[in-house]
Amino acid sequence: MMRCLGWTLLLWCGCNAFCFSRECVTARVSNFRQNVVYSHKTALPSSSSSSSSSSTQPAWTNHLDVSSSRLSLSANSASSSDTPPDGSLDVDALLKYGAALGIQLALFYGLFSVMDQVVASAEIDVPFGANVVFFWVMSLRSRVLNPLSNKRPDPKTFEAEGVEKTRNLPTWIPPGFVFPIMWILIIGPLRAVSTAMIYDVTHSYATPAILALAAHLSIGDIWNTINNVEKRYGTAVPGVAGVWLSKAFTAYQYAQISPMAGQLMTLPLLWLTVAFTLVVRIWQLNPDEQTGKVEPLYPVVGKSFTEFAWFAKSEQ
């Protein structure tokens, strides 16, 4: 079953990549067609200079014979095609999400590799309790390694600090105090204990199983930016699906090393299932203000602006 979940994660990523690529290709084809039409029009000879040879022109050129005003309109349309229309794919945001994921994973790997070298060179036997504390803090503060803005929502308002409360919430949403209890006192300890069990078997922090947890935390941090900071409710749906699937893949990796650790890592999937349902419902309750339709399941231009918080702070 866990192997199927792992393959499902890969399939989900592939499907999203295909959809995003299709949007980019569609936009490029549209711009190419406009440029081709404009090129044909500007290449036509004027009526005054071609009167003597009009009888030899092929019939299809009659359809392209337009007035100078329409040529000017076509030129203006072609020159303005660089401005993305409403609902177009926000490629800049996607690139920044990918860069943030790569940066955070690289920092995790670098940190774990240094810790492995220090432990090996000093011949330290790391106590189980020390690893539990370390992985508990790591699971709660992983966002310090992510360059995006990862402000967590306030339990009272369900909005991130400095973000105006505008979204509609379902009536069955759990009370605000439930969320910190789940993450700090239940989800965090389950991650910490199970990961410490993996270290006791592998004696390495930079093992693929623990790096799978790092990838899960990184995806969760990016999803938090999308959902709570940028308020891209459509994009948050496949984002939370990625969080769920990456958690399932981590549990599968843990189960290959320690069945008990795999079972402990599987338990948070119940809470993530509730979170997934909640995110989908919030997406449905918050349609686009202009169109009245639910937002696309990908980031669109004009909805929000994605920036690296690290560099934004350094510029101030």
Question: How would you describe this protein?
Answer:
The chain is an all-alpha fold and 316 residues long. It contains ten helices and no strands. The radius of gyration is 26 Å and the shape is globular. The two termini are 50 Å apart.
Short synopsis of the structure:
It contains 10 helices and no strands. The protein is mainly alpha-helical and 316 residues long.
The secondary-structure class comes to mainly alpha
- What's the helix count? 10
Low-confidence stretches: 1-85
Gyration radius, in Å: 26 Å
Work out the strand percent.
Answer: under 5%
What average pLDDT do the residues reach?
76
Distance between the termini: 50 Å
Question: Can you tag this structure with a few keywords?
Answer:
0% strand, 316 residues, 64% helix, mainly alpha
